[in-house]
Amino acid sequence: MPATRLHRVAVLVLEGAKPLDVGIPAQVFTTRASMPYEVRVCGAAPGLVTGGDGLSYHVAHGLDALEWAEIVFVPGYRFPDREDPPPAVVDALLAAHARGARLAAISTGAFALAATGLLDGRRATTHWHYTRALAERHPLVKVDENVLFVDEGSVLTSAGAASGIDLCLHILRGDLGVAASNHAARRLVAAPYRSGGQAQYVPRSVPEPLGERFAATREWALHRLDGPLTLDALARHAGVSARTFSRRFVEDTGYTPMQWVMRARIDLARELLERSERSVEQIADDVGLGTGANLRLHFQRILGTTPSDYRRTFTKGE
User: What one-character-per-residue DSSP string does the chain give?
Assistant: First the structure.
């Protein structure tokens, strides 16, 4: 197989940058055989950047890294609701976007993207503590406080630090396919996929043991996608009523149980299309969708493409 081209990722560290927010994209996309990305951590200028929570960062690159990058991550930073980033940073983000780079904010990094005007008229999110401030400071942004991340194509935003992992995995799925994303999730010991529409937090009144049982039920279902999976069967495994299961499942995942099962089946189909030579009909049977026609229908509805086109996309050049 020919050498894979490295995708170029810049992580822009602003004054007061939050350690977890900086570390997540830096670790997820770190160059390795299984992860064809090159990462450069940068600041407004090379040198020492005072971070948040008692940490500082010595960055090797300045804003020139944004001229090089295909994806620019902006981690959260201190006091984003008080003042915009330096004009040079805003200009560099605008120039990178105009060149075709994707801009991805983690947590309060959304304020930096909003300062560019690129979020005007678009949906965006940030850490729940700052959603009202983002809406007040940038009233043209359609702030959604109830989601983990928002993908608007060339600009992406996410909520608190942990949702930065979800955003990174989402980007990986689009760039390299579901197999690569799942591999990265295993390495990070993270959930392979959480819906961007999942609530940022679950009310404290929800008993934790029930959440653990639901996680076990999801794991149980993932090993049985080739067979019939009904709402009653899932609820029975979790030991609750179908009504309780449905309500709590939406809170936990952002999907109804049957929507989640269908997406899990499509994800498995994607992985088989990427990694095997099995026919569409065989894969449809493997993932519990019965016929190739049924797989094509749901694949097109969820992903906007056909299984054959998807396979060509992720096997080209091999």
Answer: -PPPPPEEEEEE--TT--HHHHHHHHHHT--BTTB-EEEEEE-SSSEEEE-STT-EEEESB-THHHHH-SEEEE---S-TTT-PPPHHHHHHHHHHHHHT-EEEE-TTHHHHHHHTTTTBTSEE---GGGHHHHHHH-TTBEE-TT-SEEE-SSEEEE-SHHHHHHHHHHHHHHHH-HHHHHHHHHHHT--S---TTS-S---TTS-HHHHHHHHHHHHHHHTTTTS---HHHHHHHHTS-HHHHHHHHHHHHSS-HHHHHHHHHHHHHHHHHHH----HHHHHHHTT--SHHHHHHHHHHHHSS-HHHHHHHHHTT-
pLDDT in tens, 81-116: 998 999 999 999 999 999 999 999 999 999 999 999
pTM of the model: 0.74
For 163-195, what is each residue's pLDDT tens digit? 899 899 999 988 888 888 888 887 776 766 565
